[in-house]
Design brief:
Length: 349
């Protein structure tokens, strides 16, 4: 049983399909204002809790999300932290996994729920998934343990009846209502007749933890997705380009890439030039193990670090955060293989 009587929730509206309407002039979906969302979901008024809202201006399609939005979200949550029991962020689905991953790193010492949600169909549509997503997210943000502490003091995504750890999530369905998955971690909760929490997976902060925000982000990260036929020029442009401090190498299977000497030599050269190189598998499920095949071992020997079972979204956000925190690449590397916010299964490394 949870005690929701005194809960106060801040609903933060950034944009996304959930609050969009068809513009008759060109038939594209454009955002509309928050009061209309509430009009569409009278169910929210049935909860015995105080619900406030904050609307971003301008509202955006999440394809336009920049780290600046994450910084604004972090500051907003920090400034309102003592006034609320939990936060629900309405956000477009396209980059929700990036934003949830980023916020998980930027909010250190979080002891309250920050739940991202959205929808595949606008909330005004008869078959919308937005209502259920929004109502359940608010309920989860307000849920408490018997001792009065928040049920889920983490940054999460709630979608299609599932509560997922934000930095484990990925959008893997462009059209279905089950848009998100956390392939390497079971849901933290599932909503049926009642909401069932998977208590053993939920990370509980140290009681004395205080929220601090990390708003310095270094975004100089490139992503190299290996594929058959990739040219030497493309590999060297991406690995050695002067614009990046780190490169995520998206590899095959358990962390394998091309074994040809030109590829391995380019990776070694990138390492010599001081780049931070992180191996993330292209497979949604499973993890990197560079000891398994000679092609993986060659990467390890060339200075590439294992991303374990991290998602690309989370790896990117973690690099932004770590590189923003320090100019010392050795320190960044030492943190990459650590689980800082439950983003990797440590035992798999
Ligand atoms: N393009 C939209 C967005 O990410 C899609 C959505 O919300 O589902 O903002």
């Amino acid at each position: 049983m949870t005690d929701e009587r005194k809960s106060q929730i801040l609903l933060i509206y950034t944009g996304g399909t959930i609050g969009m309407k068809k513009d008759p002039s060109d038939h594209t979906l454009k955002p509309f204002d928050f009061s209309q969302i509430l009009k569409e979901v009278p169910e929210l008024t049935k909860f015995a809790m105080k619900l406030d809202s904050f609307t971003f201006d301008p509202l955006i399609d999440s394809s336009d999300v920049e780290p600046g939005l994450w910084q604004q979200l972090a500051v907003l949550i920090k400034n309102r932290y003592n006034d609320y029991d939990g936060f629900v962020i309405l956000h477009g689905t396209d980059t929700m996994a990036y934003s949830a991953s980023a916020l998980s790193f930027m909010l250190e010492g979080l002891s309250k729920p920050v739940i991202f949600t959205g929808s595949q169909l606008p909330i005004g549509e008869p078959r919308t998934d937005g209502k259920e997503n929004l109502v359940s997210s608010v309920e989860i943000a307000a849920a408490k343990l018997r001792d009065g502490s928040p049920m889920v003091p983490e940054v999460c995504i709630f979608f299609d009846s599932k509560l997922l750890r934000g930095n484990r999530s990925t959008k893997d369905n462009a059209t279905g209502f089950n848009a998100f998955r956390s392939p390497n971690l079971p849901p933290l909760a599932e909503a049926g007749i009642e909401i069932r929490y998977n208590q053993s997976l939920i990370i509980r902060p140290d009681r004395k933890a205080e929220l601090s925000i990390h708003n310095e982000l270094d975004t100089r990260v490139a992503i190299l997705k290996v594929h058959p036929g990739i040219t030497q020029q493309v590999v060297s442009d991406t690995l050695l380009g002067s614009g990046s401090r780190a490169v995520i190498i998206e590899t095959y299977g358990s962390g394998n890439a091309i074994s040809r000497p030109w590829f391995v030599e380019t990776v070694k050269e990138a390492d010599r030039r001081g780049k931070i190189l992180l191996n993330v598998t292209q497979c949604p499920q499973g993890d990197v193990n560079m000891e398994l095949y000679a092609t993986g071992k060659a990467l390890k020997n060339a200075g590439v670090l294992s991303g374990g079972d991290v998602t690309t979204e989370s790896a990117l956000a973690k690099l932004f955060f770590l590189m923003g925190a320090s100019s010392d690449n050795q320190w960044v590397k030492s943190q990459l293989e650590e689980s800082l916010r439950g983003e990797i299964s440590k035992q798999l490394l």
